[in-house]
């Protein structure tokens, strides 16, 4: 530290302290160690700018210290842990003919696969790699950030057989690229990193299927590793999606950009739309084959395209001679004044208690017994459930199609016999990776879908959508994900090409987020993410495509 350095004032936890301007954020964070409780992994400067810990503040500022308990801190930890793991694999197996792919999320960890010409996947191998990770952690190996010319980065990736990264950066406009290294191992990562390997204290490697899972703490319990409890049905859907990407030869954003730049997108669009239509038809066929099924429940997280899916499923059910009747779970909301509230006094419309479960079960039981039922609708302006003379009576060929977030929860449909129900879980499980070591988070795809739809249908700006997203995610974790394995079938609504389509619609909305707002950090991250994609115009997207629910121009009233 230079004693002649000028002094800056830093505010955190309501206290202001003075520090030399050449002191790093990591050194500054140590003076608040007792208050922060956990090790600080990243800082938010002045509420709108993320900074890595080995940098120095340039002016008086306020800091928010981010740890494993925060999303940004956890993402930084997870990203850095991947670099540590890859470095350890290279140390154990050597550099030649060793390729580790980081695929998708499984049981709170990351499912990975290994391709190696001289070693077989085993728990014994994973234990050796884990021990090497421990050795590197104890050595506190620096994680160094280096800016290089993009053409030099491409040459480095090609020399190290990282062909996916090389392909990705051929479409990069920026003349320079940031690389991270641990010793002589270089890689590229989409996001921030910790200063050195000593920050990475909690991890494990678990053998699973034909690969393994890299385990790390959750934000809810940041001081411990979660139990390894993979959800088999969800894994099968994610793995099947990867198999399709392999058949189509589209693993990464670079592969997609290749097709866009060569004008070959039409066949891909038609092929994937046909695949989804076949999958929907297969679901309809199974429902028809189960003669006792009278109610189909469709549930899934926000922006999974539940509404358009229900329309397309209804058409396929009609092809089998069934008569579908869509029922929106929202029509069974309790009157707003009777709704439960959050601790801050706002209404909680996500919980099961926000619905009139008893009335729903009475109506469904009456319908199953052949009675005529007055069907409700919910007035979102007045906040009251209304009856406008709409009645329903069903016969042998009628099927009720109920869409809503609690559809998989048995407590919602407690009085309906199991044999009369068919449950569908739908989610947008992104198949693409940025490259072999940078996955595309499923939640990013859904958030971009929602940003575009909210502006188009509700007049909400991107700032508003980003502001409520974490609350939406908490509701999903509590009310949807725990029941997903109870579904009869899972449907992946993600499309290979959709992020390239959403790019055109989302970028202007994200640029409109005020740069002095706390939402700008997330908006900026999403803009950087979208920068990887070449845009695809929506002209050739079919009118019944699931993505039309978000960009508009579809044939369904959604």
Topology:
Layout lengths: L6 E6 L2 E6 L4 H6 L2 H4 L5 E4 L3 E3 L9 E6 L4 H23 L4 E9 L2 E8 L6 H16 L4 E7 H10 L3 H7 L6 E7 L2 E3 L16 E5 L2 E5 L16 H17 L4 H9 L3 H25 L5 E5 L6 H14 L3 E6 L28 H12 L4 E7 L4 E9 L5 E6 L17 E7 L5 E3 L2 E2 L2 H17 L3 H18 L9 E4 L5 H14 L8 H11 L17 H4 L7
Parallel strand pairs: 1-5, 13-17, 13-18, 14-17, 18-21
Antiparallel strand pairs: 1-2, 3-4, 3-5, 6-7, 7-12, 8-9, 9-10, 11-12, 15-16, 19-20
Helix pairs in contact: 3-4, 5-6, 6-8, 9-10, 12-13, 12-14, 14-15
Question: What are the key terms here?
Answer:
single chain, 558 residues, alpha/beta, Ubiquitin-like (UB roll), 5-stranded mixed β-sheet, 5-stranded parallel β-sheet
Summarize the structure.
By secondary structure, the protein is α/β, with parallel strands linked by helices. The protein is 37% helix and 21% strand. The protein has three domains: 7-67, Beta-grasp domain (Ubiquitin-like (UB roll), Roll), CATH 3.10.20; 73-230, Threonyl-trna Synthetase, Chain A, domain 2 (Threonyl-tRNA Synthetase, Chain A, domain 2, 2-Layer Sandwich); 235-551, P-loop containing nucleotide triphosphate hydrolases (Rossmann fold).
């Amino acid at each position: 530290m230079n004693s002649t350095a000028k002094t800056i004032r830093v505010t955190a936890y309501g206290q202001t302290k003075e520090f030399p301007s050449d002191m790093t954020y990591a050194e500054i964070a140590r003076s608040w160690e007792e208050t922060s409780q956990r090790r600080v992994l990243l800082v938010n400067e002045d509420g709108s700018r993320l900074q890595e810990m080995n940098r120095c503040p340039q002016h008086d500022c306020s800091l928010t210290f981010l740890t494993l308990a925060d999303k940004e801190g956890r993402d930084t930890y997870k990203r850095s842990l991947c670099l540590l793991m890859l470095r350890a694999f290279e140390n154990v197996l050597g550099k030649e003919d060793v390729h580790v792919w980081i695929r998708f999320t499984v049981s709170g960890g990351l499912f990975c696969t290994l391709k190696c010409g001289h070693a077989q996947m085993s728990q014994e191998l994973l234990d050796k790699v884990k021990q090497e990770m421990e050795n590197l952690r104890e050595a506190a190996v620096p994680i160094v950030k280096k800016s290089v010319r993009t053409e030099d980065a491409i040459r480095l990736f090609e020399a190290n057989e990282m062909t996916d990264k090389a392909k990705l950066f051929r479409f990069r406009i920026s003349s320079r690229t940031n690389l991270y290294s641990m010793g002589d191992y270089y890689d590229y990562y989409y996001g921030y990193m910790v200063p050195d390997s000593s920050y990475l204290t909690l991890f494990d490697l678990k053998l699973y299927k034909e690969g393994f899972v890299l385990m790390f703490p959750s934000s809810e319990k940041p001081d411990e590793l979660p139990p390894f409890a993979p959800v088999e049905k969800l894994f099968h859907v994610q793995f099947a999606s990867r198999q399709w990407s392999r058949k189509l030869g589209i693993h990464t954003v670079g592969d997609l950009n290749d097709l866009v730049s060569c004008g070959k997108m039409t066949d891909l669009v038609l092929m994937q739309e046909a695949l989804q239509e076949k999958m929907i038809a297969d679901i309809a066929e199974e429902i028809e084959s189960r003669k006792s099924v009278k109610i189909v429940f469709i549930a899934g997280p926000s922006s999974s395209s539940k509404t358009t899916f229900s329309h397309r499923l209804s058409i396929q059910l009609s092809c089998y001679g069934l008569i579908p009747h869509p029922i929106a779970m929202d029509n069974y909301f309790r009157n707003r004044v009777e709704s439960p509230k959050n601790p801050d006094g706002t209404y909680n419309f996500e919980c099961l208690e926000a619905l009139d479960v008893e009335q729903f079960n009475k109506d469904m039981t009456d319908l199953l017994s052949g009675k005529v039922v007055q069907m409700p609708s919910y007035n979102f302006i007045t906040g009251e459930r209304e009856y406008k003379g709409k009645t329903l009576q069903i016969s042998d060929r009628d099927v009720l199609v109920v869409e809503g977030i609690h559809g998989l929860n048995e407590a919602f449909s407690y009085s309906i016999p199991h044999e009369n129900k068919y449950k569908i879980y739908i989610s947008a499980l992104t198949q693409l990776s940025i490259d072999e070591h940078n996955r595309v988070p499923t939640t990013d795809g859904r958030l971009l879908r929602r940003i575009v739809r909210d502006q188009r249908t509700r007049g909400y700006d991107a700032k508003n959508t980003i502001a409520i997203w974490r609350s939406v995610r908490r509701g999903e974790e509590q009310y949807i994900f725990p029941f997903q394995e109870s579904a009869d079938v899972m449907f992946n609504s993600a499309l290979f090409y959709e992020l390239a389509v959403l790019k055109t619609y989302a970028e202007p909305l994200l640029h409109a987020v005020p740069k002095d707002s706390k939402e700008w950090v997330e908006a900026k991250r999403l803009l950087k993410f979208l920068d990887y994609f070449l845009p695809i115009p929506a002209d050739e997207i079919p009118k019944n495509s699931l993505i039309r629910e978000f960009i508009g121009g579809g044939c369904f009233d959604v």
